Structure formats: structure tokens, C-alpha cells
Amino acid sequence: MLESAELSESECEALLRAGIVGRVAVSTPDGPHIVPVNYAVVDSRVVVRTTPYSVLGSNARGAVLAFEVDGFDHERQRGWSVVARGRSEVLGDAEDLEQVRKVWEPRPWASGTRSLYVAIAWTTISGRRLGSGWDPVSTLPTRRLV
Amino acid sequence: MLESAELSESECEALLRAGIVGRVAVSTPDGPHIVPVNYAVVDSRVVVRTTPYSVLGSNARGAVLAFEVDGFDHERQRGWSVVARGRSEVLGDAEDLEQVRKVWEPRPWASGTRSLYVAIAWTTISGRRLGSGWDPVSTLPTRRLV
What we know:
Split_barrel_FMN-bd (chains A, B), Pyridox_Oxase-rel (chains A, B)
């Protein structure tokens, strides 16, 4: 078994910016939900796309959300995770949307129209890793090239 | 881009039972949190181990939780996810604990004492996959052998 250690804020941010798939936790009237999503980091915001009537579309607007990315090396039983938390905002401003699309159009893998852009401007970010002497970024199967 | 399709309840359950790492979402006074965990499925309950003063130890007892597992094939941009939801219970009964340890001792990868066993008896389970013609179980890097 391996020692768990905190990641620095800059390590957390680097891993968050490099990822493509993450998970949003949102509180709903019938308890918390988790929704896996494609995402992009634009400036200091996690941006995801959804539909107005989805779990996120119905519950995430203006709410505090938690967003998680992780990577695991099952063979060596080690891994890392990063959680960013903050209040979400639906992007409605044309200039804002243009900026998001310019830097990175969050491209969902799934087909279907996702007209709602939800941005999480995180106020806290923290992460952990199991074990030392290895690069957490190495567990990312694909990395966003920026 | 690929079509998203619902997984059947039995597919969801098979994937949930095969996994080793998942994520718990829990509501806290300052919003939802996500915590990655090692887990095991015992009978029809997801069992995780934690410490009394952790985010889970402080907020998850007797609360409705969401538990998520997923697998992604980044090269082909496809994947699956399963979410099980239900009220949690701290296992305190000696017989209950013995049963859990007999079937599977949830072995955390991280070192440290995790004396609290939290069981989520799910009341709903649902999942989705992107694309067809492939086996979601194939994306599991390691499978629990039962």
C-alpha cells in the first residue's frame, strides 16, 4: 500500500487543464448526482456542455458544483485525483461564448445538441496522489494539447 | 460522434460488480463533494472504507449518496458509465462486517487506517454507453474476479 500525498495547487491545475473527461457532482432535491462529461478549461473555469432538461441543466445553474478528474494505474495500484469546486454559471453572453469557442470548443464525444454551456469558476482546487517517484500526467491516456 | 444508449440494469450491475475504483458524491453543508474510493460490491451494496473524520465519514452516514464507475477508450472517444444511488449505512453489526470481509475485504490502495465501513444499498442504478458493437467490460483495466 502507498502513502497518500497532497498535490500542490499548480500540479492540480496542470492535471485539470490536461484532461478531457471528468465528472460533475451536483446536489438535487433527491440527493447528489454524478454526471460524466467532456470538458475544457478556459481561463480559470471548467466549461461543460449540456442540455436544458438534463440533470445538469435542471440543477447546476448557479449552484455550487464539484468537478473531478482522476487517473489510475491499476497494475501498480496507484493514481491521482483532483477536485475543483465552485459556483457555476450558464454562459449567455455572446462575447463570453465566443471566447470559450476560440480557446477551445468543448467537444462532447456523444452526439446530440448541447446548447447550454455551464462554466465552473473554481474557488478551491485540491488533489492527492498515491505513491511518489512517478508523473501523474503519465496516467492520462490522452492529453489536451495547448 | 457516437450515439448514447442506455445500459440495461443487468449490464449496469455487471459493470458495477467488476470495478475496483469508483467515486462517491455526497452533499455537504458547503455543497457537493466527490471522493474517489476503492470499493467492493457485497450482495446488493457498494461498500467503501473511510475514516470517521473524512469528508465521507462526516457527511455520508445515513445520507443519500451517488456512486459512479466508468471506463473510457480515449483513442476511439467512446466509453460507458454507471451510477448507483441510495441511502448509506455505516456497518456496525459484527455479523454484517464478517459477511463483508468474507465476500471481499475492500482493500484501499492507500495506506492508513480506515475503520469505517460505509455501505450504499442502491435503490436506483442506471448507465449509458457511447457507440455500439463493443464490450464495455473491455475498457476495465483490471477486473475483480468473483
